[in-house]
Amino acid sequence: MALSKIQEIRELGDQEITDQIASVKKELFQLRFQKATRRLEKPHQFKHLRHRLAQLMTVEHERRLAAAQSTQDSQSASEEK
Q1: Which of 29, 39, 40, 57 could cross-link with 35 by S-S, CB 3.0 to 4.6 Å?
Q2: Nearest to 3 by CA among 57, 46, 58
Q3: What is the pLDDT of residues 6-44, one digit of tens each?
Q4: DSSP code string of 14-60
Q5: pTM of the model
Q6: Contact assessment for residue 14 and residue 66, using Cβ atoms and an 8 Å cutoff
Q7: Nearest to 21 by CA among 64, 47, 48, 60
Q8: Distances in whole angstroms, Cα of residue 22 to Cα of each of 34, 39, 43, 66
């Protein structure tokens, strides 16, 4: 499985990103549990899931910053009038 592209994540909606973050965190927990019980079959999945989680969280943070910036801009524009 190739590492996912961040462009694919940017096309998702906010709720989908939030859902996927929760899903990836759950999968990482399950992988850690499998590793602890020595049942882990695909250790490379750690890298893929951590990479995916980082991408999801980055896009989520970018959107939050953009939303904060737009509200700040609209407030400053209304104060100037």
Answers
A1: 40
A2: 46
A3: 899 999 999 999 999 999 999 999 999 999 998 888 889
A4: HHHHHHHHHHHHHHHHHHHHHHHTT--S-TTHHHHHHHHHHHHHHHH
A5: 0.84
A6: no
A7: 60
A8: 19, 23, 20, 22
Cα–Cα distance between 62 and 76 in angstroms, integer? Answer: 21
Structure tokens, 23:
């899903």
The region, left, alpha or beta by phi > 0 then psi within -120 to 50, assigned to residue 45 is alpha
Report in angstroms the alpha-carbon separations of 30 from 15, 37, 45, 57: 23, 11, 11, 20
Give the alpha-carbon dihedral of 61, 24, 19, 22, to 10 degrees: -80
pLDDT in tens, 35-65: 999 888 888 999 999 999 999 999 999 999 9
- Classify residue 79 by burial, with Cβ atoms within 10 Å: 0-12, 13-18, 19+: exposed
